[in-house]
Design goal:
With 92 residues, this protein is an alpha/beta fold. The protein is built from 2 helices and 3 strands, in the order βαβαβ. It has a domain of 60 residues.
Length: 92
Amino acid sequence: MSGDYVSPFDDAVRPRRDLARRAASLRGRRLVLLDINKNRGDELLDRLEARFVASGSSVHRITKEIFSKPASAEVIDETLRWADAVVEALAD
């Protein structure tokens, strides 16, 4: 699986693009729940995981090393290998 990663710290100007098409259903999809390692983000992801699994999705959890820095190449690669879609938890 391939994908582009755009760092939030990247100042390059990019052309405007349309949003990706949304799937009609998440049933049968491989979802990555990305915990950025902030307090209580895992609580949100626990609840989402239960709902996604109940609706027929496969769920894989990945935790970023620390919330204040960009994800490592390993985290990005694992996410791209596994995911049809990603949910990132931001909490406090």
